[in-house]
């Protein structure tokens, strides 16, 4: 039963991505909106004041002027400024999803400030009067663009936080967070290093017979494989799995092939959810340690974050 559902999920996601995200790639333009000068009007409240970190619920204006709720985790240590990771989840998640919270706390244990936002129609931004048909609506072209545009606003927000070392800013995405994140990071120079877990690209076009006057034919491609090369020379690590039924290995290989220099690919023989593997160990050794090793050295005086073993 689980295999049947997974196969149906794969087919549905495949069809939606193939028909929604592709277009004509152009080198001269960013394929999503940015507005760095728009007011953020940020607010914050304490969720938990723990012994080793401060957990805040923050809000700021998104690209469309709507509010973007987020969780911000700030480690309590001797450092005034911290390396920072913008951490985003897969298609069914939100800032409160268990696995993303666990991974976020793992980053905090390694001295990172962590931000995870509720993307459009996720978490607190879900519209109670409307239901998305499965995950397909989330993968609409306009929503993909909306995600990337709000990611830009999130980085605008992080740049204003006194706890953030803006020279040591990373993005880590999982599944749909990785797919959208690659396209975003390719055009966001403030992100210095990226980790992609179970992401992919190179989604083929099924419908090639559009009329020449179709206004959507001129849309720039959002496919990660069309943009991942622009992340170079910034470091990029891509972690994928051989038994993935959601982001098939062929899409992972297409992304790897299109990536530029300073990128690396790591494979595990498991499924999309890392069943049978020590996910915390993978996150620690393949992602967190990679980020710490490849982040620029801050020009500010700083102490190296104290690393802790994955729990």
Explain the layout of strands and helices.
Elements (H helix, E strand, L loop, with lengths): L1 H19 L22 E7 L3 E9 L5 E9 L6 E7 L9 H12 L3 E5 L23 H19 L4 E11 L1 H11 L6 E5 L38 E6 L7 H10 L4 E6 L10 H16 L17
Parallel strand pairs: 4-5, 4-6, 6-7, 7-8, 8-9
Antiparallel strand pairs: 1-2, 2-3, 3-5
Helix pairs in contact: 3-4
Strand order of the largest sheet: 1-2-3-5-4-6-7-8-9
- The structural class is alpha/beta
Number of E strands = 9
| Morphology call | globular
Query: What is the arithmetic mean of pLDDT?
Result: 84
Question: Gist?
Answer:
The chain is an alpha/beta fold. The protein is 28% helix and 21% strand.
Protein model, in words:
This protein is an alpha/beta fold and 311 residues long. The chain has a single domain (2-206, 216-294), classed as Alpha/Beta hydrolase fold, catalytic domain (Rossmann fold). It has six helices and nine strands. It has helices spanning 2-20, 98-109, 141-159, 176-186, 249-258, 279-294; strands at residues 43-49, 53-61, 67-75, 82-88, 113-117, 164-174, 193-197, 236-241, 263-268. Strands 1-2-3-5-4-6-7-8-9 form a nine-stranded mixed beta sheet, sandwiched between helices. Helix 2 (98-109) links the parallel strand 4 (82-88) and strand 5 (113-117). The two termini are 32 Å apart. Mean pLDDT is 84; it is low at 1-9, 14-20, 22-27, 206-213 and 300-311.
